[in-house]
């Protein structure tokens, strides 16, 4: 006897209203830059924390391994965040104290804390950003 086919997973994504609530919950330039980068690019957390300043091509002239594009809002908040830093760490996202590369666990903590603040109850919210970014296109 054959087992019944398992249906395809329906992607979970955040609504525009939920995204706006998350944006409003961000009270620092680093949080705004993280969320805008996530929603704009659809990158995974591991990919985001691995990014370094020299990986961003603001002029879009070179070919890189994996190109992702971000919107104007992300461009603005990312530049504001980068300009507000006074450290020399090559990582894009760093912890505020003793600036060093932000870990995946710390970024998940920031995301979870912000989503709890606005009471977003999407299961596995941290992993829905790719589906959300795709839905926004």
Number of strands: 0
Low-confidence sequence ranges: none
State the helical fraction.
40-55%
Please trace the helix and strand order, writing H or E for each element: HHHHHH
What is the strand and helix layout of this fold?
Layout: H1 16-25, H2 29-41, H3 45-50, H4 72-84, H5 104-117, H6 129-136
Fold and architecture overview:
- The protein has 137 residues and is an all-alpha fold.
- Helices cover 47% and strands 0% of the residues.
- The protein contains 6 helices and no strands.
- Helix 2 packs antiparallel against helix 4 and helix 2 packs across helix 6.
- The radius of gyration is 16 Å and the shape is globular.
- The mean pLDDT is 79.
């Amino acid at each position: 006897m054959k087992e019944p086919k398992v249906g395809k997973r329906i992607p979970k994504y955040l609504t525009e209203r939920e995204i706006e609530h998350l944006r409003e919950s961000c009270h620092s330039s680093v949080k705004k830059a993280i969320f805008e980068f996530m929603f704009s690019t659809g990158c995974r957390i591991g990919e985001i924390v691995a990014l370094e300043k020299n990986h961003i091509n603001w002029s879009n002239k070179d070919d890189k391994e994996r190109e992702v594009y971000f919107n104007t809002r992300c461009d603005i908040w990312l530049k504001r965040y980068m300009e507000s830093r006074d450290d020399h760490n090559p990582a894009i996202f760093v912890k505020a104290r003793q600036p060093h590369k932000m870990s995946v666990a710390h970024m998940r903590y920031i995301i979870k804390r912000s989503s709890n603040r606005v009471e977003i109850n999407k299961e596995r919210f941290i992993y829905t950003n790719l589906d959300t970014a795709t839905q926004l296109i």
